[in-house]
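hey so u asked for the seq, here:
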Amino acid sequence: MTDKLTVALLFGGRSSEHSISCATAGGVLAALDRDRYDVIPIGITRDGVFVLEDDNPAKFTLNPDALPEVTDNGSRVRWPDGTGSREFTVVDGTGKPRSLGTVDIVFPILHGPYGEDGTIQGLLELLGLPYVGNGVLASALGMDKHFTKTVFQQAALPVAPWRTITADDWADAPGMAYAAIEDLGLPAFIKPARAGSSVGVSKVSEPEQLADAMRVALAEDSKVLIEAGLAGREVEVGVLQGRPGQPTRASVAGEVVVSGRDFYDFAAKYLDAPGIELVCPAPLSVEELASMQQLAIRAFESIGGAGLARVDFFLTADGWVINEINTLPGFTPISMFPSCWLASGYTYPGLIDELIDVALAHAAHGS
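ran it, structure tokens below
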């Protein structure tokens, strides 16, 4: 048997999606084949401290009454000293460093700012460490919905009309936001430009609701998108990068069926709130699915994607409209991205193997 690969799993982080990242870690920890991998679980506290976490999937179960969290346990994980080394060390309460071994690949499962946005990817690039997923530029573009939409428009991809309002705009000229909802029409969605998991998102059906929605969004980011509400089905598809020289692939589609809620919000996604049903595979015609998959692959390639993504669409009376791209989609065993690939023939552990194998293949190829 060949030597096992050592995987450093990064999770937690400083964003408001900290607990979702921990829940993803629980799923991945449980699925990684220990006959194939040695795993170093590295948690990042909400204050940005890197600690050696327990290799215990049950610790990170997504419980709506007690969301999982990385806490400061006193340990400190030290990164390699440069590109000449891939050795990680840990300092515990005794103050004496201990080697964690040489890492073959880093698997960052960080959602939101300070992880999904290119920041951790920049650190990994600086140290010359191979890693799973999107690079610095694609991560940064995918995190910022304003620039994502701008790139998609330039690539002739269909997106919902929007306006971007900064915190200064709202403070100095709030009429800009009111003019935006008048131009775009109601209902409209108010979203932080750089947040995920529907954190800080509100649906506005009348002008009187705008001020409160802006307050909620600006609590997450200094830049806010006002998007036209679209009538249509919410359908999502997973994307996987191929090995060097092989094409990008798209999964079957999954549909978010909303009943009794305004939209697919954080509580519905992660806290088992009622009013949402996830249907995978989604009932689509052969032509509809093929068109969606082609658009998803084009969207992925337009931002220079690598590894994986989930692309979210509305199927309207006029056809497909891209809502957004997620460069580190939810990856718990029940999340839409794994569900779409499970319905496409993968197992959950097999999907993790594929992501690692593709990342290593591209690292070896220098791409």
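The chain has a mean pLDDT of 93. Residues 348-365 form the longest helix (18 residues).
lmk if thats what u needed
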